[in-house]
Specification:
By secondary structure, the chain is an alpha/beta fold.
Length: about 550
């Protein structure tokens, strides 16, 4: 199997020019500034220190741009991972998170190596919207404490218990936190109406940090909690730390690692697809998965959290002229310089302000307009959407994805089964029926011959349906013709049921003839040995030959009576 790994950076540098570098430089600087408050906010909301969020954006963002399969993809921590990361830390600790992230990276690399990039795109849309909306509500819920400055020693991990705890502590609301939090939300919402070039989250952080500093230092107002009050911040680049992995930890963390991998694959490829629509380029999904995987393998050694493609930052890159992976690399360098030179200032940022930033993030993630439109879709899609959303909120993302996928597959199989038809023909058969051929040819079917036409795949969902039709038949024929011209494939259950049908028919003195078997199904029959049970001479390539053979067999049987 040929390795499908072609980083866009190599392609982008082949015809690189000064003009492209200038455009990438400007885009990279702007994206770096946009990414700064988000990386800090996502890091804190995920349960790690703010510098871990920045380290993730620096190391992960660099690797995604250097090795990824999309020219404009910006990698880093995203809101989608907040819930799963926080849950892993609560259950397995920081080391457990690091191991799960590295395992997820390995899974992503394997997915890319085995060319599974295209398969990820087939995950049902209601599932994606369901858990995205659920994550949005969960993120919003986690920010209520800081947004209102509530005095709570320990906030519960699950969403419902969090709301119960908040209502029990409403008497501890801090008015200054409310002013800073709501003010941040207003600033972020209004900034795009003034200028779309300047990120509203950065404007809110600067204004509210200055305001909080003035109130604390010159007005004597206390009780405004800042990042520095909660975390010890360092601007030293962390040394790589080893991960202690054994089979016990692998078994324990495989489920959350799988969730991180699936979520990362979905978000990064969705971001790449959106970017393709904006630039007219085409990403390599397998290379993108490998790049994302390598980033997630490396980042945990520096204490970082999961990395994926960030749609908002990627679109910011595109809108500001970025067209090659160099812009993403510059964005990582800008964040590195901020980390080394300005990190001490980060400790002055109010926690309520970061909560306001994340409230806006959760609103943008909610996709409530999309949810509203999906509620007009078939009931099966609505069931998948609501189930995934509810499981994400009430339990966790791992359960939501697993059960959501299972439910979607079951509903899909039911739809396919319902659409597969098995019809029974006697006396007359129009060869051109169901085709675009205008010239019709009618075949006479002798008495004692029955034709069963299967319209659709002969898989386990249809095999039982076929058996039921056979059992409901009245008089037993002398010959059964299975017309399989519209059977694209047959699975192991279909083969098993077909074998039983042929053997039981032979035991009753009934001959079985197969008609219109396509090359793929024929090869499957041969591989399983079912062709020998049927008899190669009884597998015809056209219905006219099958009917002619069946009529002749019935005539022989009648003469022997």
């Amino acid at each position: 199997m040929k390795l499908d790994f072609q980083p866009k950076l190599v392609e982008g540098l082949r015809h690189y020019s000064k003009e492209k570098f200038v455009a990438d430089l400007m885009a990279g600087i702007i994206v770096g500034i946009v990414a700064l408050p988000l990386a800090i906010a996502f890091g804190i909301a995920s349960g790690v220190s703010p510098e871990k969020g920045l380290i993730t954006a620096i190391v992960g963002g660099f690797i995604v741009s250097a090795l990824g399969g999309n020219s404009v993809q910006i990698g880093g921590p995203t809101g989608a991972f907040i819930v799963i990361v926080f849950g892993i830390i609560q259950t397995y600790g920081l080391e457990g998170l690091a191991i799960a992230t590295a395992m997820a990276g390995a899974i992503l690399v394997l997915m890319g190596l085995f060319r599974l990039g295209a398969i990820i795109k087939f995950i049902p849309y209601p599932i994606v919207i369901g858990f995205t909306s659920g994550i949005a509500l969960t993120i919003f819920t986690t920010q209520i404490k800081d947004l209102f400055g509530l005095t709570i020693d320990k906030v519960p991990a699950d969403c419902l218990s969090q709301w119960a705890t908040y209502f029990q502590h409403l008497d501890s609301i801090n008015p200054m936190s409310v002013i800073i939090g709501i003010g941040s939300i207003v600033i972020i919402a209004l900034t795009p109406k003034i200028s779309r070039k300047v990120p509203g989250s950065l404007v809110a952080i600067i204004i509210m940090t200055v305001l909080a500093y003035i109130l604390r230092e010159f007005c004597g107002i206390t009780g405004i909690e800042t990042i520095g009050d909660r975390f010890d911040i360092s601007n030293e680049i962390p040394e790589p730390q080893p991960l202690h992995i054994n089979m016990a930890t692998i078994n324990q963390l495989l489920s959350p690692a799988f969730t991180i991998a699936i979520l990362g694959a979905i978000e990064s490829l969705l971001s790449a697809t959106v970017a393709d629509g904006a630039t007219g380029d085409h990403h390599n999904s397998n290379t993108e998965l490998i790049g994302q995987g390598v980033a997630n393998i490396v980042v945990p050694f520096f204490g970082g959290i999961p990395v994926t493609g960030a749609i908002a930052r990627t679109m910011t890159n595109i809108n500001n002229g970025g067209r090659t992976p160099v812009a993403g690399i510059i964005h990582a360098v800008v964040l590195l310089l901020i980390f080394l030179l300005l990190m001490p200032l980060i400790k002055l940022v109010p926690m309520a302000c970061l909560a306001g930033v994340l409230v806006i993030v959760s609103y943008n993630m909610s996709g409530w307009r999309t949810v509203r439109s999906l509620l007009k879709n078939p009931k099966s899609d609505i069931a998948v959407l609501i189930t995934t959303f509810a499981l994400t909120v009430v339990f966790n993302l791992t359960i939501a994805i697993e059960i959501g996928l299972l439910l979607a597959m079951l509903l899909f199989l039911r739809r396919v089964s319902e659409n597969v038809e098995v019809s029974v023909l006697r006396d007359k058969l129009d060869v051109a029926d169901g085709t675009e051929v205008s010239q019709h040819e009618t075949l006479n079917i002798a008495k004692g011959v029955e034709v069963y036409e299967i319209n659709g795949p002969f898989f386990f969902g249809v095999a039982t349906k076929f058996d039921e039709i056979m059992r409901d038949m009245g008089d037993k024929p002398s010959v059964r013709i299975l017309r399989m011209r519209r059977v694209p494939f047959i699975d192991s259950t279909g083969l098993h049921n077909l074998q039983i049908l042929v053997e039981s028919s032979h035991a009753e003195g009934i001959r079985v003839i197969l008609s219109g078997v396509n090359p793929t199904v024929h090869a499957t029959l041969k591989k399983s040995g079912v062709d020998k049970i049927v008899g190669e001479e009884n597998i015809c390539d056209h219905i006219s030959k099958a009917v002619e053979k069946a009529n002749a067999l019935v005539e022989i049987v009648e003469k022997l009576k």
